[in-house]
Amino acid sequence: MQLNMETNMLNNNAIDQLKDDISLLRGAIAKHYPWWTELSSERQYVILEIAFNFGVPALSSNMHFNLMMKALLRGDSKGAACYLHNSKWVKTLTAKKAMRIIDMMKYG
Hints:
Elements: H1 2-32, H2 41-54, H3 58-61, H4 63-74, H5 77-85, H6 88-91, H7 95-107
Helix pairs in contact: 2-7, 4-5, 5-7
């Protein structure tokens, strides 16, 4: 019983930490890209996923991510999805997850 309680406490702490990390990440993205809050929740999720894995600076320093962000700023979600599709990161994902991420970017 004690072990279960300790495990639950650890899980709850991990979830709380993750929520804090995501909140900080959202703030960092909004600082650099104030317009991102106007994107659909699906597109925001994709950007959060990239920033969580590579850091916010990757959104401007990585060629494909930078071009994706510029396309989004122009309102070109299909172009953004194309740049995302051509990124090395997407090629590391399973085919199913890659298509889901690309579709989220393309169709919102």
